Amino acid sequence: MENLGELIRSLRKERKLTQQALASQYGMSRATISGIENNSLSEIGIRKVEAILNGFGYELTAVPRQSRRATLDSLKKVNFHE
Q1: What pTM was computed for the model?
Q2: Which residue stretches of the chain have pLDDT < 50?
Q3: 81 Cα distance to chain centroid
Q4: Are residues 2 and 38 in contact, defined by beta-carbon separation less than 8 angstroms?
Q5: CA distance 11 to 57
């Protein structure tokens, strides 16, 4: 979500919109927009985020996480057991 907040802030500023203007456009409070942008809300409806992104011409999608890089310890364990 942190990256989404940064993206939404960036898109809003590119379009020279205030948080209040964006909030009004989607029937939200300015505090909600601020919370989304700052990743400070304990919970946020995914539909709210999706609506904002769609309005900016973006699509919210899910992709599999990339596997984490192996650590030295995990490599040692694999080599030790082979």
Answers
A1: 0.72
A2: none
A3: 40
A4: no
A5: 10
Q: Give the integer Cα–Cα distance in Å for 9 and 78.
A: 43
Q: Which of 33, 10, 5 is nearest to 20 (CA)?
A: 33
Fold of 1-82: 434 Repressor (Amino-terminal Domain) (1.10.260)
Residue type for position 28: M
Dig out the tokens for 47 from the structure.
Answer: 């539909």
Q: What would the DSSP string read from start to end of 32-79?
A: HHHHHHHT--S---HHHHHHHHHHTT------PPPPPPPPHHHHHHHH
Reported as a single tens digit per residue, the pLDDT across 34-44 is 999 999 988 88
- From CA 55, how far away is CA 76, in angstroms rounded? 49
